[in-house]
Structures are given as C-alpha cells and as structure tokens.
Write a structure and sequence with these properties.
Blueprint (H helix, E strand, L loop, with lengths): L1 E6 L3 H12 L2 E5 L3 H10 L4 E5 H4 L4 H5 L4 E6 L2 H9 L6 E6 L4 H48 L5 H36 L3 H5 L2 H7 L2 E12 L3 E9 L2 E2 L2 H7 L1 E2 L5 H8 L3 E3 L22 E8 L2 E11 L8 H21 L13 H18 L5 E9 L2 H8 L1 H18 L5 E6 L2 E9 L2 H17 L15 E7 L11 H18 L2 H5 L13 E6 L5 E6 L5 H6 L5 E3 L3 E6 L2 E11 L2 E6 L8 E8 L2 E14 L7 E8 L3 H16 L6
Parallel strand pairs: 1-2, 1-3, 3-4, 4-5, 16-17
Antiparallel strand pairs: 6-7, 6-12, 7-8, 7-9, 10-11, 11-12, 13-15, 13-16, 14-15, 17-18, 19-21, 20-21, 20-23, 21-22, 22-25, 23-24, 24-25
Helix pairs in contact: 6-7, 7-12, 14-15, 15-16
C-alpha cells in the first residue's frame, strides 16, 4: 500500500479522485495549493493526481518533481496529451480523463494499477542500487575467506560456502534483470510512435536470452477474416510485401493463432513435435525448439501476440522466470499499443489503415447528410509511387521504408485539414476529399499533392528511371445518386475501384500492356480522372497537363532531358545545393527554395555521372513551380562553354538515352 496525493480545486472532482486513490493506498489531499505544497514537502509520495490547471503553478510544480508517478486530471484529452508530452522522457507522467464515462473509469483504474507496480519496481531497484556496493564488497570478502581457509576446511564446508556464493551471484543477476525490466518499461511509456515501440523488441529478446522474437497485431479483413499480422518476424522488421508471407489466420492450427484465440500463453521445451508447429515456423532462420508465446491484452481484449524462440543460454529451455518476465512485459506492451492506437494506424507510416479509413469516410458522409449541408460532393483519390520496386531493389528495404515515411509526411502536409489519407497497401495511398464541386476541382487538388511530391528531394531519387521520385494519381467523384444517401464499405470499395482504373491510366499500364510503348519509357507522374456519362459507365479519362509556359520563356534550342542531379552554386564564400529538373547542352532548369535574380551569373558545379563538372550559367527566369508549390524553377543559360564542356554534356546525354530517359 503506497501513499497517494490528490489535489483539485473542484470539490466534486477532488472527492472523486480521492475515492479512486483511497482504493489503492493511503490517500492524502489539501484544499489549497499552499497546503498541498507543504504536505508534499513534508512527506514522500509514490503517486500524485493533480488537476491540469494547477500542475504547472508554483510552488506546487516544484513539490511535484519528487513524486515517482504523476497523473494530470481534466476533461480535455487534447490538452492533457499536450501537457504530458512536455515532461521529460524519463519521467512517468500520464493523464486521467474526467468525463464520467465508464470506459474512462476502467482506463483510470488500469493506469493507476500500472503506476503502482512501476513505483514498487522503482523502489526495489533504488534499494538494490544502494546495496550494490556493499554486496560487491561482501562478495570479495567471501571469495577471500574461501581462498584463505579452503585448504584447512573439510570438503563439505567448502561446498556450503560455494552454495552461498551461488546465491549471491543469483542476487546480482536479479538486480541486472530488474534494471533491464525498468529500462524496457521506460522506453514503452516514452514511445511516441511505432518506431520507438519496436525499439524495445531487441531488449525483450535479450532479457529472456532468446534466439529470436516475433510480434503480431490482430487485424480483420474482408478476404482473410481475423488474422495476426507480423510487425516483426524472426527479429526482422517487416514491410507490406513481407506481411502476407508470415500472417497467421486466427482459425489455423498454429502457436500464435492458438494464443490469440484462447488468450492462454504457451511454453514448450520442444516445439517440433507439437501439432501447432505450422509450416510458417519452418521459415525461421534456425529450427524451432523451445518457445514462449504470450497474448497482448488491453483489458479483456486481445490485441496481439508476442513470441520468443530458442533459449540461447544453458539449459536451452525457457525457465519459469522467463515466462513471468514476458507475462509482465506483455501487459505493458499491450498498453503502449493501445496508447499509440496501432489498431487504427499503419505501423510504418503512421497513416490510417484501410478499414478505419473507410469507417471515417462513412462517418463524414453521414454527418454531412444529417446536417443537409450544401458542401458539394466527395472524391476518392488513389496514388501510387512510380517505379517503387526499382527503388526498393536498388537501395534496399530499409531505404524503401524511409521513403514511404517521408512520402506520408509530404502528402499529409499537402492535403487540407478536413481531408483523409490512408496507406492502402505497399506503396499505394488512398485519399478522401470532401466539399469538391467538380471533377476539375478534385483533379486540381490532387495535382497539388502530385506537385508537392515532385518538388521534394528524396534520398537516392537520382537513380530512378526519370532521375526524380514521383507519384501517379487516379481521381473519381462519388456517383450523383450516392449524394445525400448513406454509404457502405462496399460502395466505397466500388468507388475505389474506379480511382484505381484512373490510376492505371496515369501510370500508362494500358499502353505498356498493349505493347504501344516499352514500360521503362512510359511517362508516369500524372493525374488522371475517371469520368462517368449519364449511364454511369466510363466515358473518358481526363489528364491534367502542366502548362508549357516556362519553355517559352527559356527558348532553349537544344533537346532537354528530364534528369535530377545535384548542382552546387558558389555564394558569399560558401556553396548552396540544388537539384536539376531538366538539362540540355544549352542550359538547365533547377529547383530552389528561393527566387533568383534575373541575369546574374552563377559559378556552379554539376554532378554528371560520377564526376563534378564546373560551369558558368546566367539566370534567364525564376518563378514558382506552381501556384501551390513552395519551390521555384529557375532557367539557366550556360556561358563560355568549351568544346570539352560540350563533349562532357553530350556523353552524359548519350548515357541517359541508353537508359530510356525521356526528352522534356
């Protein structure tokens, strides 16, 4: 039973929080901040529950710094979350939402229980740390005594002393385990995204000395039903294409599926002969022998499964202590999964998953219908990364993961606040645009997203077929007869299919399939729209084309190539880095974050192939890439080219033509 301090200026809230705390320990409270500060200074408390408005006020804020676990209370979850994030990462701080909801009452009880356990563990660790020095000194003395008197003592007495030394060694191991356990808990409660959460996986594997580890989350789909999706399989962090190879259907005869169905842990010294040893486990990097499989439970709900394989220490089976450690960690891990809402959001990008996306779309349509708002219609947009397989194959899976995260961030910043975005699968993304009045408006909004991606510089983009990282998009509007009516998930998937047809047109799949053009020469990076006639069948596909105004301004006579390579311009004794948009023998167009003055001459280095080449160039024009873009496109004319310079350029263009780079 620990000591819990409660403070709220609202008598009703203070009484509610006092009763909640009194069920778990000895509760104290004060009617004023001054008395509360005096009470905190006079005694040591394990937990403190303080209303949000007073937690940062002096002198109460200073007095709260010595409390092990701090809870902020209030009725605004957004304000509470923001306040919790401002505390140091190593501090145990959470919030209690005072809305009167039964579910919030259950959550409050759960997090208070967790905090009490954390406080107890921290006390134990602090106590053990204080005794560490004296314990180590005692051990040295024990060994010294054994060495000095072993020759004079009987064999039986020596064995007894060795047993005592073994007990001391075990005590030191328990100390180490407690430290590791506390470190994992600290990381779990400090996790702000899925990457932070998955950083604890190697630590969990190490604390039980397992050969490998897997982590699954429970998901549902129309085609597969309920299944376990592995975020980590055989200690490897997976991306979308890898999920399908290692999923476990809930009804299947499988260790992970059995644990998810029954909620019971599995611990085996030899798993090979067990009927639940499904073919999935034959893909592990080492043959499966010993195993522990524990459910991840948020309250009574199972949200996932954690598995460890093949004990590395001797004996090569997991102990009761290992099972107890995993059982304890699984509860905290499930709480972190729930806190980060990974059931609704994609683990890699942080975007909505398809099912929650469709549910939110249905909610938005229903709200608009109920309010009878004249807000136009809705659009569904599907986007796909151009030549993503080429990017992944050349640069590796981890680079592909980083790219998807950067793309998600770029697209989120390009859409409006009321729009929705989800990762639909692999490198495909789905958008919901509300309040659009025509297919032209929806296409223009999508063009802003496409342009935001095109204008941003991404790592390794110079190795893409067009020397730039781009996306293609397909747009479709809700059918007219659907406006003002309830919409189902089946309706949305049908509309999504129309957007997918438009996307296929944007990516040039039809031309490639008919052999009209080589797939590597297809010009993607487009926005196409699916347009219905009165019979609600496809009548045409419209393509949004970029204006050709800049070419008229530049008046370049030489053929230009779409190529994105680095160039460095000397400025004020230093260098600035830009990327080229296209290049010709007479000049270049570069992307910059600021407008350049016309007619100035730049001293620059351009990377062509593997070499840096020096050129002088005059600014012909500099204007925004588009009305929504944050970048400027600047046209340059080369000055004083030597014949050697022209040969370098021609050789580079010849190499681009062999790779299928299109003319601009």
């Amino acid at each position: 039973m620990g000591k819990i301090f409660v403070y709220s200026s609202n008598p009703a809230e203070r009484e509610f929080l006092f009763n909640l705390a009194h069920e778990r320990g000895i509760a104290y409270t004060s009617p004023t901040i001054e008395k509360a500060s005096s009470l905190l200074a006079a005694s040591s408390f394990d937990l403190a529950i303080v209303e949000l408005e007073s937690a940062g006020r002096s002198p109460l804020a200073e007095s709260l710094s010595s409390v092990t676990c701090l809870f902020l209370a209030g009725d605004r979850e957004d304000l509470l979350r923001d306040a919790v994030r401002k505390y140091p990462v190593g501090r145990f701080v959470d919030y209690l939402l005072l809305t009167g909801s039964p579910s919030e009452r259950l959550r409050a009880e759960h997090v208070l229980n967790t905090a009490q356990e954390y406080a107890r563990l921290k006390k134990d660790v602090e106590s053990l740390a204080k005794s560490k020095a004296s314990t180590e000194e005692a051990l040295r003395n024990v060994y010294a005594e054994i060495k000095s008197i072993s020759s004079a003592l009987s064999q039986g007495l020596v064995k007894e002393l060795e047993k005592r030394v073994a007990l001391e060694a075990r005590y030191i191991r328990v100390q180490r385990l407690n430290r590791q356990f506390e470190d994992i808990l600290r990381k779990l409660y400090a996790a702000t995204d899925v990457n932070n959460l998955l950083d604890t996986i190697p630590d969990i594997k190490e604390i039980v000395r397992a050969g490998s580890i897997s982590l699954y989350l429970l998901e549902d789909s129309d085609t597969l039903g309920t299944y376990l999706k592995p975020l980590v399989w055989d200690q490897s962090f997976l991306t979308h294409p890898d999920f399908t190879r290692h999923i476990a259907l809930l009804p299947s005869v499988d260790f992970a599926s059995s644990t998810a169905r029954t909620g019971k842990e599995i611990a085996l010294a030899e798993a090979g002969a067990d009927p639940r040893h499904s073919p999935r486990y034959r893909n592990l990097s080492a043959p499966l022998h010993s195993l522990i499989c524990v459910p991840l439970k948020s309250g009574s709900e199972i949200v996932g499964v954690l598995e460890v394989y093949n004990k590395e220490a001797e004996p090569s089976v997991f102990s009761a202590e290992d099972i107890q450690i995993l059982r304890g960690l699984s509860e905290h891990f499930a709480l972190a999964v729930t806190k980060l809402n990974l059931i609704q959001y994609d683990a890699l990008t942080g975007l909505l998953r398809p099912d929650p996306f469709f549910e939110k779309v249905i909610q938005q349509v229903e709200q608009t219908t109920k309010r009878r708002r004249e807000a136009g219609t809705f659009a569904i947009v599907m986007g796909d990364v151009d030549w993503f397989k080429h990017y992944n194959d050349r640069n590796g899976q981890e680079a592909g993961n980083r790219l998807l995260r950067e793309l998600a961030s770029t697209m989120k910043s390009a859409i409006r606040e009321e729009d929705l975005l989800c990762r639909y699968g692999g490198e495909e993304f789905l958008f919901f645009l509300g309040g659009v009045n025509s297919i032209q408006e929806a296409t223009l909004l999508t063009e802003r997203i496409r342009k935001a991606v095109e204008d941003r510089f991404f790592e390794h983009q110079e190795f893409q077929p067009r020397r730039n990282l781009t996306m293609s998009f397909g747009v479709t509007l809700f059918p007219p007869e659907q406006i003002g009516r309830a919409v189902s998930k089946a309706d949305l998937k049908k509309i999504t299919g129309e957007a997918e047809l438009a996307l296929a047109e944007a990516k040039g799949k039809r031309e490639a399939a008919l052999g009209m053009v080589d797939e590597k020469r297809v010009f993607k990076n487009r926005v196409c729209a699916y347009v219905r006639d009165k019979s609600a069948v496809i009548s045409k596909t419209s393509l949004l084309k970029s204006p050709a105004g800049t070419q008229a301004v530049e008046k370049r006579r030489d053929p230009r190539f779409f190529t994105s390579t680095l160039c460095l311009c000397r400025e004020n004794g230093g260098h600035r880095v830009f990327g080229t948009v296209d290049l010709s023998e007479g000049g270049a167009r570069i992307a910059s974050e600021m407008r350049m003055a016309k007619d100035i001459v730049l001293d620059m280095m351009i990377i062509l192939g593997q070499k840096a080449n020096r050129f002088k160039a005059q600014v012909v024009h500099s204007e925004r890439a588009s009305s929504q873009s944050a970048f400027y496109h600047t046209g340059l004319r080369f000055h004083d080219l030597t014949e050697a310079d022209r040969k370098v350029l021609r050789d580079y263009f010849t190499a681009l033509e062999k790779k299928g780079t299109p003319l601009a």
